[in-house]
Amino acid sequence: MFNYYLVGRHFVLYTDHNPLTFINSIQDTHNRRARILMSIKEFDFTIRHISGSINVVADGLSRSSYALKSDLRVPLDSKTKKNVIESYHLDLARYGLEKTYEAMRSKMNRPNMYRDVKDYIQSSKICILYKHYQTTPNVSWYRSYQLLLYIHGISTI
């Protein structure tokens, strides 16, 4: 990926890992380390040690993920909040409260989000119209017993 930028040019590699500065002097002829050494021999570089407390550039790169995990929240007005919930709900083909909430929770964490999703779905005319109610089949106990006997070959219907 970076070969285009590095091959044929001399560069300096700064590291806070002091044992890495001796990598060019290793004469390893077998195992995985030898294969790695062979692959980096195509580059013209010098390795210099820099103390970790001084290496602020590396600290900034390695800790950038912490900055993204901050508790920053964009305030949503009621119309925008409704549009966000509706978008998630429609993307999931109107699968209901739990799936919509879980999809939203994986991307954001907002106060009262579960209640907001529940209120939206309960007020959605389409969801109310097409809600699938689970009902038990209307088969009498006696009829079920006859069917069971028939399946086992004990009786005929």
Automatic annotation (TrEMBL):
GO molecular function: endonuclease activity; hydrolase activity; RNA-directed DNA polymerase activity
Keyword Transferase: yes
Domain Reverse transcriptase RNase H-like: 2-43
Domain Integrase zinc-binding positions: 77-132
InterPro entries per the UniProt record, alphabetical: DNA/RNA_pol_sf, Integrase_H2C2, Retrovirus_Pol_polyprotein, RT_RNaseH
Keywords assigned by UniProt, alphabetized: Endonuclease, Hydrolase, Nuclease, Nucleotidyltransferase, RNA-directed DNA polymerase, Transferase
Protein origin, superkingdom: Eukaryota
Record keyword Protease present: no
Signal peptide from the UniProt entry: none
The protein, known as: Retrovirus-related Pol polyprotein from transposon 17.6
Source taxonomy: Eukaryota, Metazoa, Cnidaria, Myxozoa, Myxosporea
